[in-house]
Write a structure and sequence with these properties.
Elements (H helix, E strand, L loop, with lengths): L4 E8 L2 E9 L6 E5 L5 E11 L2 E11 L5 E11 L16 E10 L11 E10 L3 H9 L2 H11 L3 E9 L4 E3 L1 H7 L7
Length: 185
């Protein structure tokens, strides 16, 4: 129903054994990493949108021995440019947010041999004037994004996370930047 899911298997000798199906868990854009104890986990990116909003997120997922997924969010961005600054009832909703995840890389930030994470994301906020809102609302779907890109320019941010063997934590330098974005979900 719109979100898909993931089949989870374990490797026993040279054969795969089915464990479970995790409904809603999308693992098509992931990077395979290891905990210090040798277990595998995934760092994944997904996007979703509806009603003029779009969301990008980076999360990591570890699986228990029975295949149950434990999902931990790392970073979420939200973009409201398609709403032209209006809520579902057509009322002014505050500034338009233009935000997306551009890339996720795995440099070894602290030199411990474990893959750390560096995410590049954009963020721009703009309170629209009446004329800007009207131009946005009159534009076709295809040209609306182009208009909003000019109106709500986005700045690029790099947010670094250190992997402590069990989870990703923002570096002290990146903690303030992370706070500009919505609470990860």
């Amino acid at each position: 129903m719109n979100f898909g899911g993931s089949f989870v298997f374990t490797l026993e000798a040279v054969r795969l054994r089915f464990l479970t199906y995790e409904e809603g868990l999308l693992t098509d854009r992931c990077h395979d990493l290891r905990f210090t104890d040798g277990r595998n986990f995934l760092v994944c990116e997904r996007g979703w949108g509806g009603q003029g909003w779009s969301f990008d997120s980076v999360f990591f997922v570890a699986f228990s021995a029975d295949g149950k997924a434990n999902v931990s969010p790392v970073l979420t961005t939200d973009d409201s440019t398609e709403t032209c600054g209006l809520d579902a009832e057509g009322e002014i909703a505050g500034p338009v947010r233009r935000s997306a995840i551009k890339s996720a890389e795995f440099p070894d930030l602290n030199g411990d041999g474990l893959a750390d994470l560096s995410i590049t994301a954009t963020l721009g906020l703009k309170r629209l004037t009446k004329a800007e809102r009207e131009a946005c609302l009159k534009a076709s779907y295809d040209s609306r994004a182009e208009i909003m890109a000019k109106v709500a320019s986005a700045r690029e941010y790099r947010i670094d996370f250190v992997f402590d063997g069990e989870k990703f934590q923002p570096t002290p330098k990146s903690a303030k930047t992370l706070a500009l974005f919505p609470k990860p979900r």
